[in-house]
Amino acid sequence: MAKKKLIKAEDASTEEKIKAAARDVFHKKGYAATRTRDIAEKAGINLALLNYYFRSKEKLFDIIMLETVFEFMQSMALVMNDNKSSLEKKVELITFNYIDFITREPNIPIFMLSEIRNNADGLMEKLPIRQLVLNSIFFKQHQEAVVKGKIAEPDPLHFLMNILGLIVFPFIAKPLFKGIGGLNENQFNKLMQERKKLVPVWIKAMIKVK
Amino acid sequence: MAKKKLIKAEDASTEEKIKAAARDVFHKKGYAATRTRDIAEKAGINLALLNYYFRSKEKLFDIIMLETVFEFMQSMALVMNDNKSSLEKKVELITFNYIDFITREPNIPIFMLSEIRNNADGLMEKLPIRQLVLNSIFFKQHQEAVVKGKIAEPDPLHFLMNILGLIVFPFIAKPLFKGIGGLNENQFNKLMQERKKLVPVWIKAMIKVK
DNA sequence: GTCTATAGGGGGATAGAC
DNA sequence: GTCTATCCCCCTATAGAC
What we know:
Tetracycline Repressor, domain 2, 2 domains
């Protein structure tokens, strides 16, 4: 067992190479537009090997999808359940982490959101996302602030929509904003870095009014 | 000419039936996942007819895409160039119109954003969206407010990102928020109706801080 | 204009040699 | 495990009758 992991680590096993390539292509083009031949080529292996390891395009996709969603939810859970930080500090952490994360992995938001739509109930229904949010310290701190009259709008969904909307949407509509602003990739990323500081301040201001 | 239009109006010409069906399917599934057979079936006609009228899947798609983008930009331009309303009023109008529009056509945002991504430069480069925004009264009013010190953050792109993020993102991530909130379609739509009043208030509060 | 039938090609998957 | 060659289905597009 230990030996197997060692081997994997030192030469990036074929299986891992295929998964890495699949991740890239699926994230960029979505399930339907992806051809297994593209994945094989990118992985530097033969098409037959893909099926040898993963049986079918669909099974490979399911694995990538699951890992992507899991990665996303885990990073979410990590911040939302930190018991040392205040609600305000958590907003800063979420903003900071997500903007960095999406800058590194700019294809994940549209990928997840458009593939989830096709699967609709399939994925959402079985994932414990509702429990994750409802049981989080983040959620409880929000409730508490509402009771104390520190937050005007009581519905936590609006709160989440606002935070994620301000953080994620600019990336999703990147081509649009690059077009409007006449920006290149670097200039766009610089804008996003600015938002690391701006979003928490804006959220703070929004909290007080209704 | 007039006669032709009359005929079209009274029996919804085959061409229009195909386009309507194509619109639905493309918007819901995207280009790659759409099969021309689905469109033909939905239009109640034979597959061969689709090619008779539109030559190819791609040409049909281009038409739908163009019309969709045009419809979107026109509704945008209409509000942004209204010369009777203040900037504040325009934010209210945009919020109101877009929430109603997307509630009627919930598939358009993800459709446009994910298909634009594949086409990247193809579409964005040739559309006059930059000019549309830069020449708009909306834009000039924003500049003016910045000069007068009424808006803390001077970059109009941040302003646009915030408005659209708060309005559009909840719809894009609808399955996610329905899952978290345990909502059905009606309850979700009710939340969106609430946001018609909330978003302008929030924007107003954000404007003052930096 | 509208249909049936079919050509043509692309892409997922497998057989079988090494 | 990895490759080459190939099968086979599905989907787009066209031919040709009506």
